[in-house]
Amino acid sequence: MRRTAFVPFVLAFLTVAGTARAQTPKIGFVNSQEILAQAPGAKEAQAQFQKDLQGYQDQVQQLQAELQKMQEQFDQQQLTLSPEAKKNREQAIQQKQQEYQQKYQNLQDQANQRRQQLMQPIMDKVSGIIEQVRKEGNYALVLDVAAGSILAADSTLDLTQDVITRMKAASPTASSDTGAAKSGTGAPR
């Protein structure tokens, strides 16, 4: 009698355990840095950003040279200056330093905005493909290794190559896009 009462309990337990296992969320991960490095258009966007960044750096270097020249002139002439002229020059140098810092911050902000402007279309495509892979694979969660949140994981959960393959397949004109970006006939900036 005890055995017959025990058998339904074991069957019920196995059914519940099987149901719980079926409801376990499926998790995957990607390496966004690797995806972006291989994404169609990313190299062109990075090259354009580097070109733009050089212009910002040139402006900063020019301001820095002006400030350095003012400081050097002051250092050479300070012994011959009257106290009032010395004070005026020090104030002018401080004002130039403040202008430099403001300009430097503005140029940094402009550079960050430009990077965002160039990379956002690519990031949108990557996010869309990751979402597509997540839905098709019934993944509850897709994490990013590049964010540093994964210390160790089973490599079978890595969706990076699937995303890269789909990105390249979604952009069959990748070679013509490269030519368009180089010739300046790509998307408007």
Care to describe what's here?
- Mean pLDDT is 80; it is low at 1-20 and 174-189.
- By secondary structure, the protein is mainly alpha-helical.
- The protein is 74% helix and 4% strand.
- The longest helix has 54 residues, at 83-136.
- The protein is built from six helices and two strands, in the order αβαααβαα.
- It has a single domain (2-182), classed as 2-Layer Sandwich (Protein Binding, DinI Protein, Chain A).
- α2 (32-38) runs parallel beside α5 and α4 packs across α5.
Give short descriptive properties of this protein.
189 residues, mainly alpha, Protein Binding, DinI Protein, Chain A, two-stranded parallel sheet, 6 helices, 2 strands, 4% strand, elongated
Main sheet attributes: strand count, strand direction, barrel closure? 2 strands, parallel
Q: Count every helix, treating DSSP H or I runs of 4 or more residues as helices.
A: 6
Shape: elongated
**Low-pLDDT segments, ≥5 res:** 1-20, 174-189
Number of spatially distinct domains: 1
List the helices and strands and how they pair.
Blueprint: H1 2-22, E1 27-30, H2 32-38, H3 42-77, H4 83-136, E2 141-144, H5 160-170, H6 174-183
Parallel strand pairs: 1-2
